[in-house]
Design brief:
mainly alpha; Serine Threonine Protein Phosphatase 5, Tetratricopeptide repeat
Amino acid sequence: MKMIRRYSYFAIFIFLLSCVTPRKEIYIIERISDKIIAELPQQVRNSSYEIWELIEKGKGKKAYLKLKRMDPNSFFTSLSMGYSLLLMDNLEQSELWFRKALSINKEVSSPHIGLAQVLEKKGDLKGAFSEWREAYSLNPQNVNVKLRLERLKNVNTERAIKEANSYISSNDIENGIKSLEEVLFYSPELVSVRLQLVELLEKKGRELECISHLEIISRDQPENLSIKRKLGVLYLKYEKYERAYEIFRELASIDPKDKEIKELLLKAENGILALKVPTPWREIPNKKAITRADLAGLVAVKFQKYFKDLYIKPPIIVDISNHWAQNFILQVTSLEIMDVYPNHAFYPEDFISRQNFAVAIYRLIDVLERLGKNIYSKLEYRKPEIKDVPLEHTLRATIEKLVGYGIMSVKENGFFKPADPVSGSESLSIISFIYELAETGSRR
């Protein structure tokens, strides 16, 4: 008797279970905007409200049947079809209709919300997150959208962090990078993760990809000077000279005594100039001996912003026609920084000696002094010992002044070697130093 009673209870339980209606999934469906309905023909507006009411009640099939009589190319029909088919669990067709609605109007949150729910059900979490994020940006007052967005963000951020840690601990750098990128997709505000990603990208030699991440960190943490420095170095490496210049100029103003920053700033300046000048000019820094044309080019390009307003009638020169440095030569000779010979020749390809280089530098400083750039007053003078330029030498005073102020230097054992050539690197260093004094007044 007991056995029969036990089976009776079990049969009743099974019967009751079969009578329970499966719990329907709850979807987020916004109220339809009156503006959307107003865009429809007058004769279908009332029925459109009825269709949307069916959708809000979860009656997708009834709404779908009514929609088949509507204009398939309207935004309302596309949006409503998307929700009707979602309620009917026809995800593929629902996605197509939501995407059609977005192609008509992507500035409304409803199709983004619908598509987000479709993609989430299909397992496309990144796609769903993007749509939730877009919907929230369009309608931040929708609390349900905000909650779904935050839930998806938190769950997937935590999952991706765990995956990244697992890959990195097993030295699987490539997959570690992918997982960290996924973390930042969901939580771009995590600076520590972004820094870790930069470190891994550097290990794999993918420095160019680091730039965008360092830019984001620098934007969010403007006080982080080490990040700015690192970003500036990468800008230099990949020839983004103007961006590098802005960074190193800022860093130099914060710490004027940082010699490395000054050198990096100089490289950025030279990079900017190199992009704007003829090819021969770019080759000057690598030369063991520069020519008169090279010197004219260095001076004219470096100080162009000071010279552009100094109009002086240029002299007649007969041997620079079609020369790459023609305009530069005309500038420096018109300002009498360099001389034209009595026969109206410049001899642009002649190598320049140290003593003639000194004359040009002396005159350059004189021009800057006349413009109010007190170059010498920013430097300390120490009387030099120069063994190979006699006191009676016509250029003794010029050379002594430049050496005494540290603008030029003597060689070993106090020898200036006035007849020796000047290398491109030395000439560029001296001219850049003078430019630095004219610009900032900082010392070497």
